[in-house]
């Protein structure tokens, strides 16, 4: 069963998207972490098939997390989708340069779409 | 009676022609002045005397006495007219001068009568072949002799006295007339009066020839010193006469060579020689013409400088400069050195004051204390503008004398005194567009000579050039000044535009910061609200247990409230924007700061507990003095500080304390949080500004909290807000409000 690893400091959102994945994709396993540093330590054990990564987090920004992931031999091949409400200029191109698969703006998608699109990315990468 | 044409008589013809030329020139060009007319009449008498000699020498035994009488009668007229001339030169001495004339000519008539009466003075004339005629005088000859002698000497004495009292040009004029006539008279006296008395007649024609001295000196004085106010183009006259003489001489030389060497003009040899002589003549003619012109340029004009060269040189140099000071330097230096003057200066018009002034632009040698430094618009300037000619101070006396208007007469004399006072000998007008733009003021020549006619001509030309150059320079300066002002204006406006651009840039930056922040701040609650409601709407939450559903509803509510808070902050900040946010007077109350802080700490206690950090309120050791404030707003400010402290502190504590010191009540909020990076400190209180680490630590900040704090604190008179912060160690904010004094 494919594993989705969601990293976000906001517990309400973890709750929301966790519920969404449970509801719309019973074939996917949803794992989350609200502390980005902890998430980096755990990623080797979890071995996710896809990572949904928030950008604005205390202690460590999404950009740093993404960079670390892409420089880690265990994690470098895991597709990372940047999943944020940041409206930073050039964010998409910066993240794609760093190796992000996609950049999604949270407020532009309802949870159902998020799940569906995550599946698309998974399908593409497994194929 | 056959006319004798020997060499002497031909010479007499030449002399007569020269006298005639001079006399008619003085008569025609002498502008009807009394002295000029008398002088030309005197030359007429000379002509009569020369003609008398010519005819006497041609006379036969029968006509000898007659022509001798004519000759001697004509001779008496010369000293008479000359003496009368001295009463009219340089100016008519008085109105009744004619009476002296009458007296002189009564005396003259007596001597003429004595001469005419046969045998009274001239006894007989004997023809001596191969020799000059012999005249036998009676014993009364000395009457005649004395008459001529006394009149001439009295004339010379009169002129000499005038010479001693005159100055400048006039002095030169008198000097040259005196020398010319004296030389002519003295030689004529010897050859034509003394020697014949002794029976020696060989050179009794030489007196007529010696009139050439008078002709030469008079011409020279006319040329150089405007004698009798005559202006002639001497250079041209000299060249015409010179080339004429050359052609005449060449013609006779060739005729002489033909006759002497070839025995005739039309012999074959002569014709062949002509082929060689003609081109030589042509070549020589051009050479002579050129040589004469050079000679005339060099010696007939003032010898110290070359007229054309000086003008050309100054012109060249003037066109190389456009700066006023340089041009003035050039003009003053050139004139001073070319003319060899002791003093020179330029005054320039200043029309910006009334009456118009002429101020010193440059002077050399003048004593500025004598009053040259400032000339007001006066008779001098009007005169210069009117005549547009150089004004020589010596001539002012003559001008005054000639003037019929008593007022003008007085003005001329006053001007003469003024020029004498400032030690100026000459004033030159600088004219441009028919306005007097300045005055060149010159002193005397170092040599003591007067200004010559050529000096004045060259000075006029120089002044014209100078006037144009100065006008150009002034225009250039105006343009330059205008450019400077224009540049200043442009600079000012550019600065203004730059400032505006800077403000605009700042505004745009604030705007983009606002959009960046706001979009994120708004997007997050919106994404949660839409996420949850979309699932509710689709019925995907229908099967959830009631308490779980309740949690989602709670989430939607909290995020909606957050949206409202953000908007409220935004509206509040917007209303406080601008320089003069003030509390509504009816809301200002006497309050206790400690009460406000205590309330805030109580309200936010739960929030701190939630984050597992301690929020401690430390009351003052003794009650603080009251302050005047809008308690609602001040509470908002303290809330913002404590709320920030909790938000940006992950673990540890937040402490709020209150104390009174130096007439101020201070609330201090310190935390052990993330701190503020140095780079973010300067703009921390600006609208929409959030420290870099704050953005990462807390996603929902609007960047308006501290802006609002600052606005509220500054709405108190004397209110202050400050902070100390070390990144990763903590931050302390202080709000100080002055104690209320009744």
Q: What does the model show?
A:
- The complex is a heterodimer of chains A (127) and B (742).
- With 127 residues, chain A is an alpha/beta fold.
- Chain A has a single domain, classed as Rossmann fold (3-Layer(aba) Sandwich), CATH 3.40.50.2300.
- Chain A is built from five helices and five strands, in the order βαβαβαβαβα.
- Chain A has helices at 11-24, 36-46, 62-70, 91-98, 111-126; strands at residues 3-7, 29-33, 50-53, 80-84, 102-105.
- In chain A, helix 1 (11-24) crosses helix 5.
- The longest helix of chain A has 16 residues, at 111-126.
- Chain A starts with a strand and ends with a helix.
- The model of chain A has no long low-confidence stretch (mean pLDDT 90).
- Chain B has four domains: 7-232, Rhopdopsin 7-helix transmembrane proteins (Up-down Bundle); 247-300, no CATH class; 307-475, GAF domain (Beta-Lactamase); 585-738, Histidine kinase-like ATPase, C-terminal domain (Heat Shock Protein 90, 2-Layer Sandwich), CATH 3.30.565.10.
- Helices cover 62% and strands 12% of the residues of chain B.
- The longest helix of chain B is centred in the C-terminal third of the chain and has 85 residues, at 453-537.
- The relative contact order of chain B is 0.05.
- The interface between A and B is medium-sized, with 28 and 28 residues.
């Amino acid at each position: 069963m494919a594993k989705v690893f969601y990293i976000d400091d906001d517990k309400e959102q973890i709750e929301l998207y966790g519920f969404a994945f449970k509801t719309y994709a019973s074939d996917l396993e949803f794992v989350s972490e609200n502390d980005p540093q902890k998430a980096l330590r755990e990623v080797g054990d979890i071995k996710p098939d896809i990572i949904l990564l928030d950008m604005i987090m205390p202690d460590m920004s999404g950009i740093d997390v993404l960079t670390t992931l892409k420089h880690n031999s265990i994690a470098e091949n895991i597709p990372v989708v940047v999943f944020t409400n940041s409206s930073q200029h050039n964010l998409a191109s910066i993240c794609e340069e760093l190796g992000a698969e996609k950049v999604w703006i949270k407020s532009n998608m309802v949870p159902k779409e998020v799940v569906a699109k995550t599946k698309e990315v998974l399908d593409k990468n497994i194929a | 009676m056959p006319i004798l044409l020997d060499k002497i008589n031909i010479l007499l013809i030449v002399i007569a022609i020269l006298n005639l030329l001079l006399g008619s020139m003085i008569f025609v060009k002498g502008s009807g002045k009394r002295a000029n007319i008398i002088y030309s009449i005197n030359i007429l008498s000379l002509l009569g005397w020369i003609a008398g000699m010519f005819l006497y020498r041609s006379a036969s035994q029968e006509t000898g006495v007659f022509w001798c009488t004519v000759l001697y009668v004509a001779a008496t007229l010369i000293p008479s007219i000359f003496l009368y001339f001295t009463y009219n030169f340089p100016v008519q001495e008085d109105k009744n001068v004619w009476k002296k004339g009458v007296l002189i000519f009564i005396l003259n008539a007596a001597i003429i009568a004595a001469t005419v009466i046969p045998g009274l003075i001239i006894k007989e004339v004997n023809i001596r072949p191969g020799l000059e005629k012999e005249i036998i005088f009676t014993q009364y000859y000395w009457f005649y002799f004395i008459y001529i002698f006394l009149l001439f000497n009295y004339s010379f004495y009169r002129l000499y006295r005038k010479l001693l009292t005159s100055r400048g040009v006039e002095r030169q004029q008198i000097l040259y007339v005196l020398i010319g006539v004296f030389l002519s008279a003295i030689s004529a006296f010897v050859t034509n009066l003394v020697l014949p008395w002794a029976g020696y007649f060989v050179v009794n024609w030489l007196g007529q020839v010696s009139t050439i001295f008078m002709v030469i000196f008079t011409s020279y004085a006319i040329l150089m010193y405007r004698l009798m106010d005559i202006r002639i183009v001497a250079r041209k006259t000299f060249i015409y006469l010179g080339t004429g003489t050359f052609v005449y001489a060449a013609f006779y030389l060739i005729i002489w060579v033909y006759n002497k060497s070839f025995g005739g003009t039309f012999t074959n040899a002569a014709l062949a020689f002509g082929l060689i002589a003609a081109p030589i003549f042509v070549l020589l003619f051009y050479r002579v013409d050129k040589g004469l012109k050079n000679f005339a340029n060099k010696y007939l004009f003032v010898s110290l400088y070359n007229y054309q060269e000086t003008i050309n040189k100054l012109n060249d140099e003037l066109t190389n400069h456009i700066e006023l000071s340089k041009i003035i330097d050039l003009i003053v230096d050139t004139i001073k050195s070319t003319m060899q003057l002791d003093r020179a200066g330029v005054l320039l018009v200043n029309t910006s004051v009334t009456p118009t002034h002429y101020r010193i632009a440059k002077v050399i040698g003048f004593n500025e204390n004598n009053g040259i430094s400032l000339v007001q618009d006066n008779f001098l300037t009007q005169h210069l503008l009117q005549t547009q000619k150089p004004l020589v101070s010596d001539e002012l006396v003559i001008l005054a004398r000639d003037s019929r208007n008593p007022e003008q007469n007085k003005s001329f004399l006053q001007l003469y005194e003024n020029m004498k006072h400032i030690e100026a000998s000459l004033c030159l007008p600088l004219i441009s567009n028919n306005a007097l733009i300045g005055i060149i003021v010159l002193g005397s020549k170092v040599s003591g000579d007067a200004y010559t006619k050529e000096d004045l001509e060259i000075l006029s030309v120089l002044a014209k050039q100078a006037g144009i150059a100065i006008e150009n320079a002034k225009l250039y300066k105006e343009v330059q000044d205008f450019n400077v002002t224009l540049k200043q204006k442009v600079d000012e406006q550019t600065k203004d535009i730059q400032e505006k651009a800077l403000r605009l840039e700042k505004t745009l930056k604030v705007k983009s910061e606002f959009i960046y922040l706001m979009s994120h701040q708004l997007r997050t609650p919106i994404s949660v609200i839409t996420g949850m409601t979309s699932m509710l709407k689709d019925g995907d939450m229908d099967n959830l247990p009631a308490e779980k559903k309740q949690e989602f509803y709670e989430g939607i509510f909290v995020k909606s409230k957050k949206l409202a808070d953000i908007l409220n902050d935004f509206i509040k900040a917007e209303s406080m924007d601008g320089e003069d946010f003030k509390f509504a007077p009816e809301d200002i109350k006497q309050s206790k700061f400690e009460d406000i802080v205590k309330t805030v700490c109580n309200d936010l206690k739960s929030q701190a507990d939630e984050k597992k950090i301690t929020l401690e309120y430390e009351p003052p050791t003794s009650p603080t003095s009251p302050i005047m404030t809008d308690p609602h707003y001040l509470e908002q400010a303290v809330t913002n500080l404590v709320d920030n402290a909790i938000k940006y502190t992950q673990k540890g504590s937040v402490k709020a304390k209150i104390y009174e010191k130096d007439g101020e009540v201070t609330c201090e909020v310190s935390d052990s949080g993330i701190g503020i990076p140095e780079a973010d400190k300067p703009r921390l209180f600006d609208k929409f500004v959030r420290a870099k680490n704050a953005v990462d630590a807390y996603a929902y900040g609007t960047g308006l909290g501290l802006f609002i704090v600052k606005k509220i604190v500054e709405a108190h008179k004397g209110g202050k807000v400050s902070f100390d912060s070390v990144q990763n160690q903590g931050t302390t904010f202080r709000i100080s409000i002055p104690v209320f004094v009744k």
